[in-house]
Amino acid sequence: MKKFIIERELPGAGDMSVEELQALSKTSNSVVSVLGKPYVWVESYVTQNKIYCVHEAETEEVIREHSSCANFPVSIVQEIKVVIGPATAG
User: Fold this and answer.
1) Secondary structure, 3-state, 14-74
2) Residue 56 is part of a domain; what is its CATH number?
3) What's the chain's average pLDDT?
4) Residue 13, pLDDT score
5) Low-confidence ranges of the chain (pLDDT < 70)
6) Is residue 89 part of a domain?
7) pTM check: above 0.90
8) Residue range 44-58, pLDDT digits in tens
9) Which DSSP symbol is given to 82?
């Protein structure tokens, strides 16, 4: 599967309660369980007005299908080509 980063415009995301974040997580998990296609939600990062999600799927279309079924906004979907970090420097 390919790895994607998804940018979701969600004003006030950083002010969401634990319960609201749990509800979003439950919705995502529910959609993944009935999607009928290989799909993994890796993790998400919440900023003040956006949520950045890392998901694995075969295609961008499957990523968008998950978002549509969950009624989540999608601003940008990009395939992650390479992951680097401090150890990449050698």
Assistant:
1) HHCCHHHHHHHHHHHHHHHHHCCCCEEEEEEEECCCEEEEEEEECCHHHHHHHHHHHCCCC
2) 3.30.70.3090
3) 97
4) 97
5) none
6) no
7) yes
8) 999 999 999 999 999
9) -
Instruction: Please tell me the distance from the alpha carbon of residue 82 to that of residue 71, in angstroms, as a whole number.
Output: 29
In degrees, to the nearest 5, what angle opens at C-alpha 29 toward C-alphas 45 and 11?
40
Instruction: Give me the domain span that covers residue 69.
Output: 2-81
- The verdict on residue 12 lying in a domain is yes
Which residues are within 8 A (CB) of 56 and not within 5 positions of it... i.e. 6 or more apart?
A: 1, 2, 3, 4, 38, 39, 40, 42
**Counted domains in the chain:** 1
Q: Is 88 inside any structural domain? A: no
Give the integer Cα–Cα distance in Å for 13 and 60: 24
How far is residue 19's CA from residue 40's CA, in Å, rounded to a whole number? Answer: 22
| Residue 90 counted as domain residue | no
- Kindly give, in sequence order, each residue whose CB lies less than 8 Å from that of residue 50, ignoring residues fewer than 6 positions away: 7, 8, 9, 10, 13, 75
